[in-house]
């Protein structure tokens, strides 16, 4: 069984490891067992409000010990992607404090919405203060030639275990793209940069790595494109097949994944 041959695991956070401010069933036990077996674990997230260090602290507080290098956050990849294309640049930032900090860490200079014409790039994350003023500035900037970057195209961001959500970065990106006539350069799942970073940190080839996540269109589609073994967590046990992005394995939660992994290794069930 492929599970027994895996040498590294990349776990999505929202909807897989946690929901809001609580760990989902089996998360701590699953991560602990994989680590005890000597298998590296990294956490991937399209979260564009917090940087890796903040997310690692949250994981640790909730019961999974983590360091910043264990987490790959789309917001951290954004600053690097802009620098790779433009070098240190004048950037119109649309997002929370974590996005601004990530841009500053990459030596970019923020541009206020009123000075959109000076922007060489627009950097979009999930922005709880997004309004018409910001939409006008961003769409004008990209229409005038500024490169348009987004952390992800997620339409919704889960906020609780009962299906609650906030509008995601993708909802805002669509508004800018429609008004400005420019599609964004995306660094988060399902696009390649996050999976490339994950494989580098896991130190194993794609054929021996797994992506575990709840979203077929981001976690599973991105994992398949990158050549990883894909595990879909069907939240709450509800499962609707997705022919376009079918996973190699479907489990109800991380408790079931742990049991399947132990069975595959001949170690019995939990």
Main beta-sheet annotation: 6 strands, parallel
Number of helices: 10
How far apart lie the N and C ends?
18 Å
CATH architecture of the largest domain: 3-Layer(aba) Sandwich
Work out the number of β strands.
15
The CATH superfamily title of the largest domain? HAD superfamily/HAD-like
Mean pLDDT: 92
What does this structure look like?
The protein is α/β, with parallel strands linked by helices. The chain has two domains: 2-46 and 189-264, Rossmann fold (3-Layer(aba) Sandwich); 78-186, HAD superfamily/HAD-like (Rossmann fold, 3-Layer(aba) Sandwich). It is 39% helix and 20% strand. A six-stranded parallel beta sheet has the order 5-4-1-13-14-15, with helices on both faces. It has a five-stranded parallel beta sheet with strand order 7-6-8-9-12, sandwiched between helices. The chain starts with a helix and ends in a 6-residue tail after the last helix. The mean pLDDT is 92.
How are the elements arranged and paired?
Layout: H1 2-5, E1 8-12, E2 18-19, E3 22-23, H2 27-36, E4 41-45, H3 52-62, E5 71-73, H4 74-86, E6 90-94, H5 97-105, E7 109-110, E8 121-124, H6 132-143, E9 147-150, E10 156-158, E11 165-167, H7 169-180, E12 185-186, H8 192-202, E13 209-213, H9 216-226, E14 229-233, E15 249-251, H10 254-264
Parallel strand pairs: 1-4, 1-13, 4-5, 6-7, 6-8, 8-9, 9-12, 13-14, 14-15
Antiparallel strand pairs: 2-3, 10-11
Helix pairs in contact: 2-10, 4-5, 6-7
């Amino acid at each position: 069984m492929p599970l027994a041959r895996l040498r590294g695991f990349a776990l999505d956070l929202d909807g897989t490891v946690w929901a809001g401010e609580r760990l989902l069933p089996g998360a701590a036990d699953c991560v602990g067992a994989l680590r005890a077996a000597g298998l590296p674990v990294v956490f991937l997230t399209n979260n564009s409000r917090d940087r890796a260090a903040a997310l690692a602290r949250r994981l640790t507080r909730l019961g999974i010990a983590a360091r910043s290098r264990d987490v790959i956050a789309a917001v951290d990849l954004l600053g690097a992607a802009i620098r790779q294309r433009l070098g240190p640049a004048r950037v119109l930032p649309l997002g929370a404090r974590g996005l601004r900090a990530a841009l500053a860490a990459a030596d970019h200079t923020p541009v206020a919405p009123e000075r959109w014409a000076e922007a060489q790039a627009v950097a979009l994350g999930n922005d709880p203060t997004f309004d018409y003023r910001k939409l006008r500035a961003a769409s004008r900037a990209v229409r005038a030639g500024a490169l348009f970057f987004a952390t992800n195209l997620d339409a919704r961001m889960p906020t609780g275990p009962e299906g609650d959500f906030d509008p995601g970065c993708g909802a805002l990106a669509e508004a800018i793209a429609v008004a400005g006539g420019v599609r964004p350069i995306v660094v988060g799942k399902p696009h390649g940069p996050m999976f490339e970073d994950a494989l580098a940190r896991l130190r194993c080839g794609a054929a021996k790595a797994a992506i575990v996540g709840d979203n077929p269109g981001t976690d599973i589609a991105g994992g398949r494109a990158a050549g990883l073994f894909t595990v879909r967590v069907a939240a709450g046990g509800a499962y609707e097949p997705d022919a376009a992005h079918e996973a190699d394995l479907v489990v109800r939660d991380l408790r079931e994944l742990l049991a399947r992994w132990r069975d595959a290794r001949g170690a019995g069930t939990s």
